[in-house]
Specification:
alpha+beta; 2 domains; 3-stranded mixed sheet; 35% helix; elongated
């Protein structure tokens, strides 16, 4: 048994080393080409992404219309901070701290959600504190406390130009169909930085679609004390049992003459 355990440990070390080697050459997210009014020689795109590498100096030729060089540099950091396979670039995190643009805060929080290395999590924490001047604690569990911090900002938390497209491309690395919902110029009544991956691909948890209903006094599959979600629209009421919604988490239905989506 001890030999078997030692072999497994050795296997994990070999695999981990191979993955680490692969991650160093991970390409950045695919950045769509768009028209620019900025001279392609006005900014070196990735100069701030590395302290020593001369190979990282690439001319910025695909930048949309933005306000100034400071924001242009921040946007370039956004597109380089998370690779196409989901790993976080530590040089980009350090560049974000030096840049200091507040629109990089939700980008760094997104990076934190994909970070499982303690040293890198601390680097992201330091970058967030450098940009905001605040500390929320949770050096390793960064996402929830910084989401809470962003939600309390007045004026509201800002995002960089092109954040919608970046977010869509980022989620598309998990499931390409996510780009149907978040894309360049998408209309949204909520801040896009609040959109978080739920842990599955689209429809990985099948929604409850226009379910059949029975009258309340005819129900024989619920106990009297079981919780339900009650919804009333235009005088029509319906109860969605917690037991059923726990399996589906989302229901599409018609109630009171309206088509509704109910999320649990």
């Amino acid at each position: 048994m001890a030999i078997k355990h030692a072999a497994l440990v050795a296997l994990f070390i070999v695999v981990g080393s191979a993955l680490a080697a692969c991650s160093t050459s991970e390409p950045p997210l695919l950045r769509p080409t768009v028209e620019s009014e900025v001279s392609p020689t006005s900014i070196i795109a990735t100069t701030e992404l590395s302290d020593t590498s001369e190979d990282s100096d690439v001319l910025l030729t695909d930048t949309p219309k933005f306000t100034n060089d400071h924001e242009l540099a921040a946007i370039d950091i956004m597109w380089n901070i998370i690779g196409a396979y989901g790993s976080v670039d530590e040089n980009a995190v350090k560049a974000a701290a030096r840049n200091g643009h507040p629109g990089l805060v939700p980008v760094l929080v997104e990076a934190a959600s994909r970070t499982f290395e303690p040293d890198l999590a601390l680097e992201i924490s330091r970058a967030l504190e450098e940009i905001t001047g605040d500390s929320v604690g949770g050096d390793f569990a960064l996402v929830a406390p910084w989401f809470s911090w962003m939600s309390r900002q007045d004026p509201p938390q800002t995002t960089l130009a092109g954040f919608d497209e970046w977010k869509g491309e980022l989620l598309a690395t998990i499931d390409p169909s996510f780009k149907r919902f978040i894309y360049k110029g998408v209309s949204s009544r909520i801040p896009l930085w609040t959109v978080d991956w739920g842990g599955v691909v689209r429809d990985g948890i099948p929604p409850l679609e226009f379910p059949s209903t029975v009258l309340a006094d005819e129900v024989d599959f619920l106990n009297a004390d079981e919780p339900v979600f009650g919804v009333t629209i235009n005088g029509e009421s319906r109860a969605y049992p917690h037991r059923i919604m726990g399996w589906h988490e989302l229901a599409n239905d018609r109630l009171g003459g309206e088509q509704i989506t109910f999320v649990f």
